[in-house]
Amino acid sequence: MRSLNYYRPAVLSEVLSALRDDPQAKVLAGGQTLLPALKLRLAAPSRLIDLQGIDELRGIVVKGNRITVAAMTTHAQVASNDDVRRLSPALAAVAGCIGDRMVRNMGTIGGSIANNDPAADYPAALLGLNATIVTTSRRIPATAFFQDLYQTALADQELVTAVEFPISRRAAYVKFKHPASRFALVGVFVAETEEGPRAAVTGAGSVVFRVPEYENALAGEFRAESLIGVSAKFGSLNSDLHASADYRAHLIPEIARRALLEAQKADGPSRTDLAGTNH
Fold first, then answer.
1. Are residues 225 and 269 in the same domain?
2. How far apart are CA 225 and CA 236, in angstroms?
3. Is 268 domain-assigned?
4. Are 234 and 252 in contact (CB under 8 A)?
């Protein structure tokens, strides 16, 4: 049996000190990716630094036109928060559609975006809402944060402490989910923001990406009809046993259209799961 050192600090400064002393250590947030990797012996850190005891990394604060979600806030807490549901229902809906109930109660927003799974839901929300990632050393716009497959702009020993979301005028997220994992085979987040329309796609490529052709078309009118006749270049898309690249390319415009229809509903839901429905 392989031994593993475990450390549960009480404050963030102790985490940073421990990482400086032991660069081979790994931080443990919700553990939804790291723990399975440890069980399969795909990861072998010198020790685990558990963030669960750090109160300063938890909570949701609304100030001005921004919602700040601390890194160790769980998906379930984001989904059920009254302020988030009122001010950014699409964000609450994204959090509420991640995985199953156990995943939502254990997984954290900081752990999710730092892992940057290509089929995760949160990256689309961050890119679609023009969020800012706050770390232990700087502020990173979402457009610069997600770089490639499981790669982010985070430097060694740099941790996510919070995510700041501007409150959009309208937004919605629709995904075609894998029926078992509930990851997005293709997910599209659309938002009408103060800076203009945004459309972000997850699950289709190696990393979340925006679709400028859709955003340009929606600048005139933020409606599903604005995408009629609009073609977009998606670059290299994923092709695997779940869906081919061609199928994902076919799904993107249809799911974008459905996301816009959801955003147009004044009192409608902000997210629709398509798997298992006729389409």
1. yes
2. 26
3. yes
4. yes
pTM beyond 0.85: the answer is yes
Can you spell out the DSSP letters for 212-242?
A: HHHHHHHTT--SGGGGTT------S----SS
Number of domains in the chain: 3
Structural domain range at position 21: 5-50
User: Which residue among 29, 50, 71 closes a domain?
Assistant: 50
pLDDT value of position 124:
98
With a cut of 70, say whether residue 1 has pLDDT above it.
no
Contact 108, 29 (CB under 8 A): yes
Q: For residue range 181-238, list pLDDT tens digits in order.
A: 889 999 999 999 999 999 999 999 999 999 999 999 999 999 999 999 999 999 899 9
Looking at the domain assignment, is residue 279 inside a domain? no
> Which of 137, 166, 195 corresponds to the end of one domain?
166
Q: Which two tokens stand for residue 40?
A: 């399969």
Does pLDDT of 114 surpass 90?
yes
Question: Rounded CA gap, 222 and 107, in Å?
Answer: 33
